[in-house]
Amino acid sequence: ESDTASEISFQFTKHKKTPSVGSHSSDMASVSSVSGSVLSVYSGDFGSVDAQGTVEFALDYDEKNREFQVHVSQCKDLAVVDEKKSRSDPYVKTYLLPDKARMGKRKTSVKKRTVNPIYNEVLRYKIEKMVLLIQKLNLSVWHNDPLGRNSFLGEIEVDLASWDWSNRKLNWYPLKPRSLSAVNGVDHRGVMNLSIKYVPPGSLGKMCPKNPPSGEVHIWVKDVKDLLQLRPSGVDAFVKCYVLPDTSKKSYQKTRVIKRDTNPVFNHTIVYDGFHTEDLKDACVELTVWDHEKLTNHFLGGIRLGLGTGLSYGISVDWMDSTQEEVAFWQEMMLAANEWIEGLLPLRSL
């Protein structure tokens, strides 16, 4: 049923944040990575103003330096954030999508007390032209608050594949409200096809040679479909797995890398033992998909299987944040001991 199998033993202790771990797997090599916490385009928005006004900018690609350049000229008739003081302190922020974390954001300076700011600044990205053409530019305008309670003032999104690169002139564009997909939390990163099973301690009977002395959680990662493609050659994908709250390198499991495929088939089974039934309420299986590169790996999306209560062994944790689909999948496993539960779950930012 699977081409490879990994097994790791956990001893969950309710009074410890980090349980002791003993590994029974040879596939435990450390891998370089970036944080799974991907910043939202709209992170830090504390405003409630309607988008209005226009922004003037130009786009260019410097072939010699392999550099994408966004020339931000000025904005006009922006919304007023502080009506009592008739004040807005605007700045412009850019991302390259779909992977906001990979290339990062760029920002202009802040212009204070104006709804008609003049910038004349160039925001630069070192990126190959072929890679740039599968991206979208998100350019947004924000009011800067001294306490970090920034307010969204409007945005424009440009599909760089269809951009007229002979047009290097400054042009005016109307600022728009947030896109519906962002407002509704739609963040399509692909879907994972998997099965999970819980084997309670001693549940297989004394005559069974494989009857586990402690409970086991089996995770069968079958395949992933529709991954984000960050470069023209495709995606070199692999899956990482932890059972939280343990985040030590010894607890880390991974599949092999499937090269140049946005629909990779892994067929990889991982077994975690040391589980007691009560641990299922406080533990969380985190599966994340990554694009492998020599210098650093890039996060593509993930899922977290648990009860999503926000608590683990009485401690408040941000990773106990399973979606309704993920919670239902985990609960079905808890109620059906020794049975494989199949699921198709959407990947998301973590």
UniProtKB/TrEMBL annotation:
Q: Where is this region: Disordered?
A: 1-27
Q: Name one GO cellular component term.
A: plasma membrane
Q: Which GO terms describe its molecular function?
A: neurexin family protein binding
User: Would you say which domain of life the source belongs to?
Assistant: Eukaryota
One Gene Ontology biological process? exocytosis
**Keywords assigned by UniProt, alphabetized:** Cell membrane, Exocytosis, Membrane, Repeat
Q: Which intervals of the chain form a coiled coil?
A: none
This protein's name: Synaptotagmin-like protein 2
Organism in which the protein naturally occurs: Corythaeola cristata (Great blue turaco)
